[in-house]
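Here we describe the complex-level prediction in full. Unlike the single-chain runs in Section 2.1, the two entities below were treated as one system.
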Amino acid sequence: MRRRVAITGLGVFSSIGTGAAEFAASLRAGASGRAPLTAFDAAGYAHSFGCPVAPFDPSSWLHRVRPAELGRAAQFAASAGRMAMADAGLTEAELRAARCHVCVGTTEGGSFELDQLTEAWLADGPERLDPVLARQVPAQSLSVAMACELGLADAEISTLGTACSAGNYAIGDGFDAIATGEAEFAVCGGADAIARKTFTTFYRLGLVTPDHCRPFDSGRQGILIGEGAGVVLLESLDSARARGARVYAEVLGYGLNCDAFHPTAPDRASLARCMELALRDAGVKREEVDLISAHGTGTRANDSTEVSAIRDVYGSRVPPVIGLKSMLGHAMGAASALSAIACALAITGRFIPPTINHRQTDPDCAIDCVPNTAVDADLHVVQNNGFAFAGNNAIVILGKHEAIR
Amino acid sequence: MDITAWSAISPYGLDRSCFTGGIRSGRSAMRWTDPAGPAAARACLVPGFDQRDVLGRKGTKGMDRMTGLAVHAVGSVHASGPADAAVVLGSTAGSVRSMMDFTRASLTGERPFDVDPATIPSVVMNTPAGHCAMWHGITGPNATIASGRVAGLLGLSYARRLLRTGRARTVLCGAAEEYSAARAWLWHHCGYGGGPLGEGAAVLRLEPAGASGAIGTVLGLDSRLGTVTAVAESALRRAGITAGDLWAVIPSAPAERDELAGVFGAEVLDRVPRVAELIGDTGSVSAVFQIAAALAVGGGEPGPRVALVTCADAMGTTAAAVLRLHGTGGPC
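The structure predicted for the assembly as a whole is:
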């Protein structure tokens, strides 16, 4: 018998706001995180917009770990973990008294720092690389930083490097750790920082838009890369009720599969299969789903393939399908975690965040994407899609707390 | 959770029998000094491994060495296995050589996007696991556990959750690391010490307890921030095993061995040759090679034996696994 799992704390660093309240207000307002990128010298690229997180002072968030010792993604992860714990109304002592599960998903890990090391190597050779930067490259630094910041020792601490669906992978893993009774609290989500390597990868593949990000739009031209962290605090529903915690939503289940097909071209049948796996795991019928938060990158291939797969599963009754990357950009490992948080806030706040920058829906993506303006809605079950490079698909199903069985 | 097969591509050679022979003989696989690495840095490479020769020319253009090692090791335990198996692979930071080469091309090219698109997959951390799925047609959960030295044992824990929850019925669980001068320099500057670097890949096929043809059983697992002694004792408690029941204790590095010598006798600590001292520090593959070494040394002998495997990452995480070797169907 698996335990029911509640989301009771949220930690958010995003291009459209920090913290749950600011993030929710921006989602409702349809804010755009688009700005020129300054994380690297963008000279020579024809265009270099993205969705960066505004400058932030990690020392105002981090109590235990020294910001200077952490890479940028690890700073995001540790700060968001601290924020999620506080948001859940928990103290370090309460977390430390129980077995915990710490899991951070990421695409790039310490790539921002690795880029700097490559630059230094070019300039001065490999003999004089900065040891502080070198220690920030291994991806485990993200989850270890978060655990150290919260003073957690009795915890399984892992970094999931499953690229752009890693946030959903991490929330799913935290869900399993709580549901099976392996852990009492899970602090999990995703984090990434914009780096030259990431931008250049997408740019070279012709996937970066010179324009705004417009998921499902006839004129869509691609992604804007983003960054940040989304971290949720999970505990059993019994634990949440016993301590009178606010429950944003329940995690009802999730699904994982792999296309085993192509590194970058998504596979329609495989995406549909992943949705079916997630719905079955959550014990939810498709007609119960009120909203789908799409992977919705704004590329030609993703959006039409994703919508086709949704149609294959949902038939003629497709719920609204929104593309949050229109606001947030593609925050890579943080993307699906931020999207899951947006879904939880939408359930709690009784609204559907819009797909912004929308002009004309592509006939190949004929869905209600809730264009440009949020709408009020009583959401009971929400499906959060996360797909990744190498065909790593992960879909999380969230449910309204009171409404579920 | 049972182990029903294992593979190892290591500095001893391309297959399991090479690994078994090398470990049993206790002979060092350290023969090479990389002129492009830090001064006098020795390294243990998989001899004669080139992904294009071993896997063929088709589909290997631009493939990095780490991915090639992973594809080979997963294939060795997957032959005609279920298509819906899960793949769980450990990593540290992916192929840092590929990543640094890519960024170097961006920084030095005429235009910053004059990079070779064929190399793009290799700059993403989940490529080894994803490529194993593509190469072998494996459509189950596909996870990359980027947790450094403890990744092999955290992978076991992740795999056990996949099996417990029915998300997979078979998990191919292991890790891969490649040697490169880039990795050697980065590791050198981290200043964590330790011996020469090694490389390779090792994979365990895991199925729910009671699987037919099981060659081992995972009795207990634990991981935490803390000492190796604490995590070892906790894993033993969870497994219901006392120190006196142990046939072997297999740490990942000399410092761990020194610490564990305060708890366990020299006889059990010396039962299995010291893997890292023979094939180098293999990063995320360390613990999988340690388990493979236990199977190589103890798996073919009659009667069950219980082994404790420990691992510590330089950033402070530790992990331990308690395994029963069934003593049947051992190494070839």
